[in-house]
Amino acid sequence: MVWLGGLITLVSIVLWVYAFFDALTTPAQEIRNLPKILWLVVIALFIPVGWILWFFLGRPRRSVPAQGDTSSPPQAMTADDLDPSDFSQPSGSAHPLGPDDDPEFLRRLNRRIDPEE
Asked: Which residue in 25, 40, 43, 36 sits closest to 82, CA to CA?
């Protein structure tokens, strides 16, 4: 029976840590019912129930937008909207990101290295 208590404690700690970091990384405008800072305080102070409250009352609902749905205008970015994983995604721009992605730059470099070609 002791192992069951330990397992419940371990699961509770894992869910608490997950809820805290989920609330920390969720953009402020998507959080429901309370401001972001208050959710962090609730999760941190009320350890046994804070993560349960976050999952049921604060976490944003993940809905898949309808295809072609452009009803909501783009919003201004704030510091809460920044996510490190966004910087590793392609920018979607037509110009190359770096010199090694630019075919014209590579052709000029080859001509400089070997002008006889």
From this structure: 25
Encode pLDDT of 70-96 as tens digits.
Answer: 555 556 666 666 666 555 555 566 666
Amino acid in position 92? G
pLDDT tens-digit series, residues 37-62: 998 899 999 888 888 888 888 887 76
Within a domain: 39: yes
Print the domain residue range for 10.
Answer: 1-61
The total domain count for the chain is 1
* pTM listed for this prediction: 0.50
Number of Cβ within a 10 Å radius of residue 53: 17
In a domain, residue 86? The reply is: no
